[in-house]
Protein: Eukaryotic translation initiation factor 5A
Amino acid sequence: MSDEEHHFESKADAGASKTYPQQAGTIRKNGYIVIKGRPCKVVEVSTSKTGKHGHAKCHFVAIDIFNGKKLEDIVPSSHNCDVPHVNRTDYQLIDISEDGFVSLLTESGNTKDDLRLPTDEALLKQVKDGFQEGKDLVLSVMSAMGEEQINAVKDIGTKN
Structure:
C-alpha cells in the first residue's frame, strides 16, 4: 500500500458518451454514423462481396446533419463504426435577439439562450416572419456530439 495522495482531474461530462459502437453491417439507410468526426445521416449503403482477403465492405454515403456536406466512408462490415447519440427536442420560441440568438422556453420553464438562428434561408425566413406576425412557434433542435442546431419550425397558433 502506498500512502501517496492521488489527484485525478476529470474533464468528462456526466458520463454520457457522444457516440456508441455499432457493427458496420447493421447500419442501414436513414440511420446515423460518424464519418471524419462528423455526425451524419446515412443516405446510401452498398455492401461488396467478400474478396480473397476476407471482409465484405460497406460503402456509406452520408450527409452531415449540421452543415449538409456529403461524406463517404468504406468500412469492413464486421468492424465497428461510431454512431452518434442524436436527440431532437422541441422548444417554444420566446424572443429573437438582434445578434442572431434565439431565446427558447424549455419544458422545465427555464430559458435556453445559446442557440443561433438557423443558417438555412427558408427556415430562417419562416422563423423570423412567424415571430414578427406574433405566431406561437415551436422550434425543433437537433443535438449530437456536443453540437446543436435548429432544424425545423412548427406554428402552434397565434398569441392571445
Remarks:
- The helical segments are 121-132.
- Residues 121-132 form the longest helix (12 residues).
- Residues 47 and 58 are 4 Å apart (CA to CA).
